[in-house]
């Protein structure tokens, strides 16, 4: 469906760019992806600067790599429940704001990145280049996650830190509601 | 010196890897995103001339089938021109028993695997015209004369936004300017100069005051990106080139060039007779809206990134420049090949 959001009306378009844009738009037009990207950004922003940077890079690179690999081997796995769990987990971690060791943050974010990378590919058409689709998804992930990360890092006032945690709790709540609705 | 050399090599290798990975598979692309064009014209002698121009390639043959409720398109085309990259079918209705207005036009055969579009242009004998797009989601339309001017202007505005959004070469140029010009007010001046310049040539080319070959213009636009990438490398190495010293002047010069690129879309779509200035303005405003939205999107990302990476290694600072340069050189080669 997302491919119809931006019909090709440009005559002198750069060849191959449509696969990139399809990959770019997919995470931005699917709530389950946007919420996780925002939650990962907020989670990274709650960490110390070097950990935040490594978390961001790890997330984007693993997401791109897993999408490209899954696309290349044609893996299209239904991961709806796992995606909902990842929303609850990442949103919950932001809300809890436990002083997690950096290694735990990397493992959680890495697993979420791989999960969403593979899930992205399920929406890719077989005729598309998985590399360009994955690159588009990585750019979208980088932009949204960086936005959320920037917001969390600037939230230094006590009320702002609470607001970030509230945002995390809302993300987790949406995940729980969607999970419940899917189970019914 | 060795550190700097290794840094430059690492940045080049990384940029080359990304560039090749992204675009090498695209060499055998079947669909390049060009829309088909369907033109229905009421001629002065009371007849109707219909022309469908459909992009083809070694991998894709013409597969779209237009249909009119009057049945004018049910027969075989009066003429068929086969080109290396486009097939053109002509129909001639002479004289029509039914009026064109009020008929339903439909296009069948959209490939669901691709986001295909047909640009439809209907020109009535009195000069009024309709321009719209048919896609797999909206494959038909009722031909009517009463399209409002406001709706038409909105279409041109949206077309401008889409053109800049779907033009990675234009967006990369703007990104390059944002990376090169760190001072906020200098950036505003540079982007304004770029805007003013491309508005001038966009108008001149769309009104056909100036005519340049589209393929050559596209190749030179890619070359302008290469120049910008070189300036970015120089700036990162502490050498101030012309672009870093007077960015607004260089942006203006390259803006003149990019305006011709923007105009190529308008030349394909055409401007509505009787509302040319406003449609042109709407398209230009659309381009500006897209450009400003892109800058506003990029600036917070850059601010966060620079806060996170306060002292980036030398090689990392060169990656954006080499990335832009690699893509731009690929496009130069590709577009020169097309132009030749």
Q: What attributes does this structure have?
A:
heterodimer; A: 184 residues; mainly alpha; 0% strand; disordered N terminus; B: 340 residues; alpha+beta; six-stranded mixed β-sheet; three-stranded antiparallel β-sheet; 9 helices; 9 strands; elongated
Order of helices and strands of chain B: HEEEEEEEEEHHHHHHHH
State the assembly state of the protein chains: heterodimer
Tell me the greatest interface: A-B, 37 and 48 residues
Poorly predicted regions of chain A are 1-13
Walk me through what this model shows.
The complex is a heterodimer of chains A (184) and B (340). Chain A is an all-alpha fold and 184 residues long. The longest helix of chain A has 26 residues. The radius of gyration of chain A is 17 Å and the shape is globular. The two termini of chain A are 25 Å apart. The N terminus of chain A is likely disordered. By secondary structure, chain B is α+β, with helices and mostly antiparallel strands. In chain B, a hairpin with a 3-residue loop joins strand 4 and strand 5. In chain B, helix 3 packs parallel to helix 5 and helix 5 runs antiparallel to helix 9. The longest helix of chain B is centred in the C-terminal third of the chain and has 33 residues. Chain B is elongated, with a radius of gyration of 23 Å. About 3% of the residues of chain B have low confidence. Chains A and B meet through helix 1, helix 3 and helix 6 of A and helix 1, helix 2, helix 7 and helix 8 of B.
């Amino acid at each position: 469906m997302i491919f119809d959001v931006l019909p090709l009306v440009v005559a002198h378009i750069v060849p191959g760019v449509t696969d990139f844009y399809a990959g770019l738009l997919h995470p931005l037009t699917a709530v389950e992806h946007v919420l996780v990207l925002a939650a990962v950004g907020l989670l990274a922003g709650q960490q110390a600067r070097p950990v935040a940077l490594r978390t961001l890079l790890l997330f984007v690179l693993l997401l791109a790599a897993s999408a490209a690999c899954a696309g290349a081997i044609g893996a299209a796995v239904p991961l709806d429940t796992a995606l909902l769990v990842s929303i609850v987990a990442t949103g919950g971690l932001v809300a809890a704001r436990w002083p997690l060791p950096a290694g735990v943050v990397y493992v959680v974010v890495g697993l979420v990145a791989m999960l969403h990378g593979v899930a992205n590919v399920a929406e890719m058409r077989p005729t598309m280049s998985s590399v360009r689709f994955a690159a588009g998804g990585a750019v979208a992930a980088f932009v949204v996650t960086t936005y959320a990360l920037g917001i969390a890092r600037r939230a230094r006032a006590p009320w702002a830190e609470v607001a970030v945690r509230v945002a995390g709790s809302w993300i987790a709540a949406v995940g729980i509601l969607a999970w419940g609705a899917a189970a019914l | 010196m060795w550190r700097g050399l290794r840094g430059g090599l690492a940045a080049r290798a990384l940029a080359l890897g990304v560039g090749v990975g992204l675009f090498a598979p695209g060499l055998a692309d079947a669909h390049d995103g060009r829309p088909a064009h369907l033109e229905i014209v009421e001629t002065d002698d009371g007849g109707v001339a219909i022309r469908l121009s459909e992009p083809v390639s070694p991998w894709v043959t013409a597969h779209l089938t237009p249909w009119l409720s009057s049945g004018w398109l049910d027969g075989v085309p009066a003429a068929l021109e086969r080109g290396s990259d486009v097939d053109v079918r002509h129909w001639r209705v002479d004289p029509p028993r039914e009026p064109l207005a009020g008929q339903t036009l439909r296009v069948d055969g959209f490939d669901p695997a691709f986001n295909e579009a047909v640009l439809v242009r209907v020109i009535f004998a009195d000069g009024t015209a309709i321009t719209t797009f048919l896609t797999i989601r909206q494959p038909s339309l009722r031909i009517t004369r009463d399209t409002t001017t406001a709706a038409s202007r909105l279409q041109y505005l949206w077309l401008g936004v889409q053109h800049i959004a779907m033009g990675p070469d234009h967006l990369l140029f703007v990104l390059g300017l944002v990376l090169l010009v760190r001072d906020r007010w200098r950036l505003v001046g540079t982007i304004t100069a770029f805007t003013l310049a491309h508005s001038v040539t966009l108008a001149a080319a769309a009104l056909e005051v100036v005519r340049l070959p589209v393929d050559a213009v596209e190749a030179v636009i890619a070359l302008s990106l290469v120049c910008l990438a070189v300036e970015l490398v120089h700036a990162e190495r502490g050498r101030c080139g012309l672009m870093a010293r007077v960015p607004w002047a260089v942006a203006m010069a390259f803006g003149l060039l990019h305006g011709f690129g923007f105009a190529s879309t308008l030349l394909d779509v055409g401007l509505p007779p009787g509302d040319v200035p406003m449609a042109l303005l709407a398209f230009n405003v659309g381009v500006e809206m897209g450009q400003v939205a892109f800058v506003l999107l990029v600036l917070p990302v850059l601010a966060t990134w620079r806060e996170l990476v306060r002292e980036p290694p030398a090689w990392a600072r060169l990656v954006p420049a080499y990335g832009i340069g690699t893509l731009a050189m690929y496009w130069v080669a590709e577009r020169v090949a097309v132009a030749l």
